[in-house]
Design brief:
The chain is of the alpha+beta class. It has 5 domains: 105 residues, no CATH class; 69 residues, no CATH class; 101 residues, Band 7 domain (Tetrahydropterin Synthase, Chain A, 2-Layer Sandwich); 42 residues; 40 residues, no CATH class. Helices cover 35% and strands 36% of the residues. The protein contains 9 helices and 19 strands. The strands form 7 sheets. The protein has a 3-stranded antiparallel beta sheet, with no helix packed on it. A 3-stranded antiparallel beta sheet has the order 6-10-7. Helix 7 packs across helix 8. The longest helix has 43 residues. The protein is elongated, with a radius of gyration of 51 Å.
Length: 364
């Protein structure tokens, strides 16, 4: 005989000749020479062995233990009290009742949405990282959720977690802000067969993410083609001169042409316009010559207009002086003053009669 003691918080499983015999609790116990004991901590969780079913046939054992079973497609989150302990993979586990309160949350890995059973504070725990998908939708985005290639629902801004199992999970994100689309170097022919290149730009935004991503294949490319077709259609109805003087009309036409069709793409065309028109070298030289000729003609017209105005002013002055002697004398004095201002010195040699002559001239 031998004596064993089971302390508080412990329990013992007695085997006889290698087979389960009984469960013993706190206190001193006598064992025969053919009996052995394994002591278990009631605060611990244990993985079961192949003899658990035999032990469960004992009513006393069954009454004092709690068994947890985790299937192949599951994991279980183990909590001791309110604190997370560990992640349990497939298998059977047991613990002894009476000392601590253990709680278990079972997660079905075949159901991506079962991640909702996990407390938010646990979602980024490193122990759970291998079992979860994480997706972030920014405030300017909208997302489309797919399970096994099938559309499930739309996602707004936020952080989302889904279990990582046999069901593939995918999230497509799309920017809902205003986006600028560039159409550079579009080679076109005008009505009068002038070849040119147009750089065009348009602003749009996505209004329906499902239409843009599900109902259309590469909606941006389709929008690009729509704008390009509208631009070519309108430019082909204008001569080069008409095009250069009616850029706004081109923008209006392209907007109207594309807006009626972009609703099916889930986008709204906001603005559009020609950024610049690039002419071939020969046409550019001709345009420059025309411009120089026009400006030369305008300059000649201005010169002739000024000469006419000056002549008319002289004529009016002559008529006034003819009708008014005093005005004529004032004009004479004005010219004499100008002449005197340019003379450095005056030599008088007329025998003292100069003053009389000046008096006679200004008294006429």
């Amino acid at each position: 005989m031998k004596r064993v003691r089971i302390n508080v918080g412990k329990t013992g499983i007695v085997s006889k000749n290698g087979d389960y015999n009984r469960l013993i609790s706190v206190g001193s116990h006598w064992l025969t020479m053919r009996e052995s004991v394994v002591i278990f901590d009631k605060a611990q969780l244990y993985a079961s062995d192949s003899h658990l079913n035999v032990k469960l046939e004992d009513e006393n054992f069954r009454k004092n233990v709690e068994v947890i079973e985790v299937a192949d497609n599951e994991i279980a989150l183990s909590y001791v009290g309110k604190n997370f302990s560990e992640v349990l993979r497939r298998g059977r586990y047991f613990y002894f009742k009476g000392l601590v309160d253990m709680k278990f949350v079972t997660i079905n890995l075949n159901d991506p949405e079962s991640a909702n059973l996990i407390e938010k504070s646990m979602l980024r725990n490193s122990a759970l990282t291998p079992y979860l998908h994480e997706f972030k939708i920014n405030s300017s985005e909208e997302g489309l959720l797919f399970f096994d290639g099938k559309f499930a629902r739309a996602l707004t801004k936020g952080l989302y977690f889904f279990t990582r199992g046999i069901t593939p999970v995918e999230v497509l994100k799309i920017d809902m802000r205003q986006i600028q689309l560039e159409l550079s170097g579009q080679e076109m022919l005008t009505k009068d067969k002038a070849a040119l290149r147009i750089n065009f730009q348009a602003n749009y935004r996505v209004t329906n993410a499902q239409k843009a991503l599900l109902d259309s294949k590469d909606f941006e490319k389709q929008l690009y083609t729509l704008i390009q077709l509208g631009l070519r259609e309108f430019v082909g109805t204008l001569s080069l001169d008409e095009l250069l003087s009616a850029k706004e009309k081109v923008s209006e036409y392209v907007l109207e042409f594309a807006r009626t069709k972009t609703s099916n793409l889930g986008v709204e065309l906001l603005t559009a316009g020609i950024r610049d028109i690039v002419l071939p070298g020969e046409v550019k030289d001709i345009m420059n010559k025309v411009l120089v000729a026009q400006k030369s003609a305008e300059a000649n017209t201005i010169v002739r207009r000024e000469e006419t105005a000056a002549t008319r002013s002289l004529l009016n002055t002559a008529k006034l002086m003819e009708e008014n002697d005093m005005l004529f004398k004032l004009k004479e004095m004005e010219y004499i003053e100008k002449i005197a201002g340019k003379i450095g010195e005056v030599t008088v040699s007329s025998g003292g009669k100069v003053l009389d002559q000046l008096t006679q001239m200004f008294s006429k």
